[in-house]
Amino acid sequence: MVSQDTIINKLRELARNLWWTWQPHVIELFRELDPVLWRETDHNPVVFLDRIPPEQLVRRASEMALISRIDYAFRRLNEYLENKDSWGAVHASTLRSRPVAYFSMEFGLHESLPIYSGGLGVLAGDHLKSASDLGLPLVAVGILYAEGYFRQALDAEGWQHENYPYNEPSRLPIEEALAPDGTPVRVAVDTRTGTLHAKVWRVEVGRTTLLLLDSNVPENGESDRALTGRLYGGNAGVRIRQELLLGVGGVRALFASGIDPSVIHLNEGHSAFAGLELIRRVMEDEGRPFGEAVRQVAAMTVFTTHTPVAAGHDRFGSDLVEENLGILREQLHLPFDDFNGLGRVHPGDHNEPFCMTVLALKLSRHANGVSALHGKVSRQMWHPLYPSRTEEEVPIGHITNGVHVLSWLAPQMKSIYDRHLGRDWTHRMRHPEVWSGASEIDDGEFWETHQVLKARLLEFVRQRLARQAANRGAGDAEVAPYQRMFDLDTLTIGFARRFATYKRATLVMKDAEKLAALVNSSNRPVQLLFAGKAHPEDRYGKEFIKEIVRISNSSQFRGRLAFIEDYDMNVARFLVQGVDVWLNNPRRPQEASGTSGQKVAMNGGLNCSILDGWWAEGYDGRNGFAIGSGRTHADPRVQDERDYDDLIAALSSQVVPLYYDRDASGLPRKWIARVKDCIRTLGWRFNSDRQVMDYAQFTYLPASGGQPCEMPGFHT
């Protein structure tokens, strides 16, 4: 007889390693223990297990015959952790003693650890998960935000309001990081205004480890204790201090934890100060002058830029830089002007602010954008930093983003793939031939599975809309219609992302009468689902949301268009797994990559997108729909007009007719054929296993001292 303590301990160990987040059988295990409580705790197994009395939990596990499944899940986790036969063990074994250190301002691993805002964080989370699956030696560094990004609520007029609930550490899947001698890891960074202190937490993500810095410690004053309160909150003074903690404090946390990395990967410029701390260590430990130390550190540093918009790069005034990094500057033996010149395109221009991306580019020898088009845009943007080279010779290549398949693939779709893509396809998903089996999936089986996922999405939307209305004070009579909205047989289009202005969330609504005619067609109707958050300081983004809500409440669009509040990874899963079409209409070429559409592609939906980011290299004419031909115009207003016309043309002449073209059995055969082409041509290319392997081959191994390898788009 298995003891109560044994069962509880196994469940707690499963909950403390985020491996469970991409294991459907473990997720289902938690859900079956108490479905209602699982929803109420936002799928957080740490809180979930704390809320159930041990005797009740064990009784429930016994009644539901779950004990053997708990044992199975526990064995699977340990087999996974102990497996030495991995891709990384064969191809990246040189990193075992000195791993890659991956720095990012945010990590989107699961909604139960809310330290992310959007695509950058989810990309970082997927990177960690694939590094774990591949067995690539990697440790990550980030920040534990006490209040995360924000929870979104809309008022009756559709105006966004931000709420910041406190993330109690005991309710998160984290534990204190310990030094090799068993003492808790603490770091300190000296500044002109005093010493900044932080504790360090540890998160297990399969076989990878994430270290999170937390400034909410008694040694700090009130302002510094609040420093790690909110992601992307506060003024420039808060931002530079957060980035100081991430970069300099993050390097110190690694070494205090007994980790001496051979490669530093800066995921965006926020962590560029890490390079300065490494230079200081080389100068101090090896007695090298600054110039030699720079060359040594740059050779081991990989930098990924994600921002093709000039305003998106962090910049700070020289006084603010001196206030926070002046002591470090003195330790590097650099004069004030020389130090500030490290963050300037034109070092002698005292009016130019200190740019984190410029610093990252100067302190790295391996730099890349996140799609082929973004690599080109980045070379154009940063050409002035390399005046002696042609634009094509600017040393910025590209590694196109991908998504972690098992985190985003619906279990129902995985069951189909298990039968048609071959044995162990999840370990070989980066190979094109693996996905060729998609062509053999029975049309009826495929469509039925998609409809099940779509029905699940629509029921989720109905419940969320009813809850949103009730939260705004609506009575039962007003709430009831939401529970009957939306139709399974209607073409359903999803649009969900950060509400930055360049993403043009309201483009499809430019002409309300045309949109009304499209969605209210008597025989070929359309319904649209929107979700996303605007930055708290982005009034234009908030106006977009307000406009969508206003239109959704009008008589022309009620029941055909809706906005889902509080977009997070849970909402994203429902959307990408259930929509028929994913709409993406950024102003080209401002979408660096985008990954949400990649999640839709693997789940049986189609993309309808501007030829920007990853879609510019993924679209082949048969695996989705293109909005326009990739033309751009110098005048944004003209470009918006053209793109709107192309969007409406794509929807009315391609998407809608193809979806409603049915055979005698009611199946949209041509639509299904296009979806299969989508899966077959995109699945192998746009997954994060391929992405992480590209980083290993083109950057990590060369940076760690292996043979140099030219990455795509990099020309010497």
From TrEMBL:
Keywords: Allosteric enzyme, Glycosyltransferase, Pyridoxal phosphate, Transferase. Its EC number is 2.4.1.1. The modification N6-(pyridoxal phosphate)lysine is found at residue 599. GO terms for molecular function: glycogen phosphorylase activity; pyridoxal phosphate binding. It catalyses: [(1->4)-alpha-D-glucosyl](n) + phosphate = [(1->4)-alpha-D-glucosyl](n-1) + alpha-D-glucose 1-phosphate. It is an enzyme of class 2 (transferase). Pfam families: DUF3417, Phosphorylase. The keyword Glycosyltransferase applies. Residues 8-113 form the DUF3417 domain. It comes from the Bacteria. GO terms for biological process: carbohydrate metabolic process. InterPro entries: Agluc_phsphrylas (IPR011834), Glyco_trans_35 (IPR000811), Glycogen/Maltodextrin_Phosph (IPR052182), Glycogen_phosphorylase_DUF3417 (IPR024517). Belongs to the glycogen phosphorylase family. This is Maltodextrin phosphorylase.
